[in-house]
Design a protein that fits this description.
The complex is a heterodimer of chains A (about 120) and B (about 575). With about 120 residues, chain A is α/β, with parallel strands linked by helices. Chain A is built from five helices and five strands; from the N terminus they run E-H-E-H-E-H-E-H-E-H. Chain B has a five-stranded antiparallel sheet with strand order 3-2-1-5-4. Chain B has a five-stranded mixed sheet with strand order 6-7-8-10-9, with helices on one face. Classes of the chains: A alpha/beta (about 120), B alpha+beta (about 575).
Chain lengths: ~120, ~575
């Protein structure tokens, strides 16, 4: 799909679980994305966005320092990259916070696929 | 805590027993009276001086019944002798005349001190202390200066007789005397308005007498200033009015004693009526609206009638009297220290109240234990909740996180593999997904994350969405409530909806959240078969501890074929 856009999108992966980041990287790269970097917590994520200016962020809700909603809100406030939230919980567990934080959407981690990710970025 | 008596240090002779002052005062008065008559002093003036001094001594003796008034008692006696001493000015002896001249106004300063330190002998305030010092400076100090300069042949202290300077000293004394008197009057009126309860009964008569006597003194001084000369008539009236001061002291004691018949009525009242309202009755009997009753528990702590722990006061502004029954302390009366001056009254109430207070104490002890049990149940539930939250987080961060990674990895490999392998991998992924879903349900049942993050309304709405039949949620909690309240309400809804799904064969259910001023009401209704009951192993029975820790009630209505209504009411303050 990104072959169609001529420009391959650059993605930052934010998750505190390293094995998950590794799988997510493979999955995204298989689909033609460039993984611009990885971050294990909110602080690293904000620093990586400032340094690498990715097109999109795959952002876990539960991070050790601040939660993903705070990161998404901060990025939305500065008109930053598109954010797709992921979590091992379901959307129902977060109520209205997903809609309120300025993210493009939410994918339960177990349902994560390149197609679901791309659909939210369109 | 103020102790019951201030004991006087041992003294000798007349100082040990002021009753002996009576004959001394009578003899001194008669001697001065004879002197006055012999020197041609007007009879009315002699009579006024004798009446005032004898009244002062008599009142000082009456006051001895109150140990805490001992200082005031001595001050009254001193005033009497200062007054008689001032009359030595009638004597022809130069030495006696000079003595009389120097202490001429001392009795008035003594009275100022008496009033502004009444009843315990300490000045009421800093302003009172300053007024007392000024009164002594004006009367005693002024006369002493006058003694050096007054042009009178009888003056033994005369060093530089100077008529106009002596006159100036006189005027200065009179003008500053008026100023001090006005300050005293202000302080007295202020005190009169502030006094309450037993202190008012005991002190108000003297203060009212002062409120009359001080203006009389001001008129006397004012006349002297205006006419540039003293007047014997006004001086006589002034002394006659001052007799109201010792009378006021005695009246205060008598007025306080008038409470006693009410205390004996209490005996009848307490034995015939239930103990409820004990505090009000005791407060009425003792005439102290500030009275508090502290019940003593077996472990020595004190609680109020509702079983709440209270501390006995330590300061001097409150007094504590122990009440015993069968030789054991059952309660403490916390009251105005002025009641310590009426030991007979307190004793009669104490003796009467003992038995009834013993019953009240037992009731208060039970209430206190109930409150403790409830508090401890609350702590147990809260500790369990904290543990559940920890387990939920561990499940989520641990097993669930790893399974999710496995699932995504399987999905990725399935997309890369050939058809046969892809099919196996996809089925494996489905199994893992199923495990994740079950784990998630388990975690939610242990502790609902959404409840903590978003509150009861959002959590109940999520519950409703997950329930496999139509559930309508209405009403509001208005704002966030305490964690235990939200958790209890959530689990009631959760258990009730589980029962609806399992047993009710209902087509729909309704959840209603209602916020009362001091409670949250949660109602879950279905249109199913009814006939439900709470058995020991049902989920709702499992909520008993949680609900009782909050003093909550739960009612289940479930007539056959009428549907089921579960209604919980959880107190939550406002």
């Amino acid at each position: 799909m990104c072959d169609d856009c001529n420009v391959r999108k650059r993605v930052l992966i934010v998750d505190d679980h390293q094995p998950f980041r590794a799988i997510a990287r493979e999955l995204l790269e298989d689909a033609g994305y460039i993984v611009a970097g990885e971050a294990a917590d909110a602080g690293e994520a904000l620093a990586a966005v400032a340094a690498d200016a990715p097109d999109a962020v795959l952002l876990d809700v539960q991070l050790p320092d601040r939660d993903g909603f705070a990161v998404a809100t901060a990025l939305a406030a500065v008109d930053g990259p598109a954010v797709v939230l992921i979590s091992s919980r379901e959307a129902d567990d977060y109520g209205k916070r997903i809609a309120a934080c300025g993210a493009r959407g939410f994918i339960p981690k177990s349902k994560l696929s390149a197609a679901a990710f791309a659909a939210l970025l369109e | 805590m103020t102790s019951a008596a201030i004991t006087a240090s041992p003294r000798r002779g007349v100082l040990r027993d002021p009753v002996l002052l009576l004959p001394v005062a009578v003899a001194a008065g008669l001697a001065i009276g004879w002197l006055g008559v012999h020197e041609g002093v007007p009879g009315a003036r002699v009579a006024a001086d004798l009446a005032l001094s004898w009244a002062l001594v008599a009142a000082s003796v009456v006051m001895l019944e109150r140990p805490r008034w001992r200082r005031a008692s001595w001050l009254l006696a001193a005033t009497a002798f200062a007054l008689l001493g001032a009359d030595l000015e009638w004597a022809s002896s130069h030495a006696l005349w000079t003595l009389g001249f120097v202490i001429e106004g001392l009795w008035a300063a003594f009275l100022v001190q008496l009033v502004l330190t009444f009843p315990e002998g300490r000045p009421w305030s800093r302003a009172a202390r300053i007024a007392i010092v000024c009164a002594y400076a004006v009367t005693f100090g002024g006369q002493l200066v006058g003694a050096f300069v007054v042009p009178d042949g009888r003056d033994a202290l005369s060093v530089a007789p100077h008529a106009s300077f002596a006159h100036t000293v006189d005027r200065a004394q009179e003008i500053s005397g008026v100023a001090v008197a006005l300050v005293v009057l202000f302080l007295v009126v202020q005190r009169l308005r502030a006094l309450r309860g037993p202190a008012r009964r005991a002190q108000a008569p003297l203060l009212m007498a002062a409120a009359v006597s001080v203006p009389t003194g001001v008129v006397w001084l004012g006349w002297a200033i205006a006419n540039d000369a003293g007047t014997s008539t006004l001086g006589t009236i002034d002394r006659a009015v001052a007799v109201s001061l010792p009378l006021g002291v005695v009246a205060g004691i008598v007025w306080s004693r008038l409470r006693r018949p009410e205390a004996s009525e209490l005996v009848v009242e307490l034995r015939t009526e239930a103990a409820a309202g004990m505090r009000e009755r005791l407060a009425r009997a003792l005439g102290d609206p500030t009275l508090e009753v502290a019940y003593r528990l077996g472990d020595g702590r004190f609680v109020d009638a509702t079983g709440r722990p209270i501390e006995l006061p330590q300061g001097a502004d409150r007094a504590v009297t122990a009440v015993t029954a069968g030789g054991e302390e059952v309660a403490a009366l916390v009251h105005d220290p002025a009641l310590l001056d009426e030991p007979a009254l307190v004793e009669s109430v104490r003796a009467t109240a003992g038995l009834v207070l013993e019953n009240e104490r037992l009731a208060a002890e039970v209430r206190s234990q109930l409150a403790e049990v409830r508090a401890s149940r609350g702590r147990i539930v809260a500790a369990a909740d904290a543990e559940r939250r920890r387990i939920e987080r561990n499940l989520h961060d641990g097993a669930q996180q790893r399974l999710v990674t496995v699932s995504v990895a399987l999905g990725l490999e399935a997309s890369r593999a050939d058809a046969a392998a892809s099919d196996v991998l996809s089925r494996a992924q489905d199994e893992v997904e199923q495990a994740i879903a079950e784990l998630r349900e388990l975690a939610r049942g242990i502790h609902p994350t959404l409840l903590r993050d978003e509150g009861l309304e959002a959590a109940v709405e999520a519950l409703a969405r997950r329930t496999p039949l139509p559930v309508t949620v209405s009403g509001t909690t208005r704002d966030r409530l305490a964690d235990p309240v939200e958790l209890a309400a959530y689990f009631v809804v959760s258990e009730a909806l589980t029962n609806v799904v399992k047993h009710a064969s209902a087509s729909e259910a309704l959840v209603l959240l209602e916020r009362e001023p001091d409670a949250l009401r949660v109602t879950v209704t279905d249109d199913g078969v009814g006939g439900a009951s709470v058995t020991a192993d049902s989920g709702l029975a499992g909520l008993r501890d949680r609900l009782e820790a909050l003093d909550a009630t739960i009612v289940i209505e479930s007539e056959p074929r009428q549907g089921t209504t579960v209604c919980a009411e959880i107190p939550c303050g406002s």
